[in-house]
Design a protein that fits this description.
Length: about 210
């Protein structure tokens, strides 16, 4: 098996979008938990904007996650973390999680980073990065974020509790409570590279 490489995704990775969404949907079905549904174009846009991380073994898809901002960029989420079944148990999820965290801290160093998850493994990774369990009231009140929960099979719980809690556990990383993060130079370089390419593509299409 080829070495698994974890990197900030770009437009060249759009060919993996369908595989990513299928892998996410199948994993949710197996766990019996819901997941916020995302369109192929949404995921592709994240790649073009250097707001996603992908793991590949040669040309084979191994894992994925993306970041998004809420509440006028005062909050960030690292979302959609998935590892293909062929590559589970190899530490890929941790590597992806670490890189999306670095990506979020690089782009929005003062934003609070939060996670809603029902997975024990993700909770453990969050704790290692400095996240703390919080109530839903500590999260963003951005309606656009909460609309993403409408596609989840457990959304009735969220509605019944007046959005106070659900099946997922809320966890929050507040940068004000931590020393400035040391961002890997490779992440910074990769963001600049993708943004430069995007700017060039935009000029060529005008």
């Amino acid at each position: 098996m080829e070495e698994i490489k974890v990197m900030v995704a770009d437009a060249t990775h759009e060919k993996y979008v369908d595989t990513i969404l299928q892998t996410i949907a199948e994993a949710a079905k197996v766990r019996g938990t819901g997941i916020a549904k995302r369109s192929p174009e949404y995921v592709a846009t994240k790649m073009r904007e250097a707001k996603a991380v992908i793991a590949l073994s040669g040309e084979k898809f191994a894992g994925f996650s993306y970041i998004e901002t809420w509440g006028n960029k005062t909050y960030v989420t690292t979302s959609g973390l998935i590892v293909h079944p062929d590559f589970r148990g190899m530490g890929v999820a941790k590597r992806i999680k670490d890189m999306t965290f670095s990506l979020a801290r690089t782009r929005w160093p003062h934003a609070k980073i939060f996670s809603l998850t029902s997975g024990a493994a993700v909770m453990t990774m969050n704790s290692q990065l400095g996240y703390q369990p919080v109530t839903f009231a500590d999260l963003t009140d951005d309606e656009a974020f909460w609309r993403g929960c409408e596609g989840c099979i457990n959304v009735d719980v969220l509605h019944r509790t007046g959005r106070k809690y659900c099946i997922c556990t809320a966890m929050l990383y507040d940068p004000e409570e931590h020393l400035p993060a040391k961002i890997p130079q490779e992440v910074i370089n990769r963001i600049h590279q993708i943004e430069k390419q995007s700017n060039n593509d935009n000029k060529n299409t005008k």
